[in-house]
Task: structure prediction
Amino acid sequence: MARILIIDDEPQVVTMLQMYLEREGHATVSANNGTEGLNILAGSVFDIVITDIVMPERDGFEVLMSIMKMPNRPKLIAISGGTPYLTPKNLLEISENLKADVVLPKPIKLLRLSEIIKELLSGDNQGREMM
Result:
């Protein structure tokens, strides 16, 4: 199974994702913001990074840009619930342009997330999707 880093400033989202993904057999580590997530990435190897876009300190856009510069980068799943000024679709379109492997709106459909993770790990993912 995969080593997955979850970066999100909403504790309930992190808890839900960790519980679900660990029940699916994955090993998870979490970070509360982009700065913490990038620090964890600097010292560990992950197969997949799931990052929220709107966060304090370094946001998900900065996380995506930093990871794209990494050799042997992990697969990237960008997630967002939007802001009062930008819809989730706007934010996820930007994430797609920053080369996230998959972009998903919140709330996340957990069964679909499992399918996406399997596709990313097998190399079968045929592109980005916004649900």
Observations:
- The longest helix spans residues 11-23.
- Residues 79 and 104 are 5 Å apart (CA to CA).
- The helical segments are 11-23, 34-43, 60-68, 88-97, 110-122.
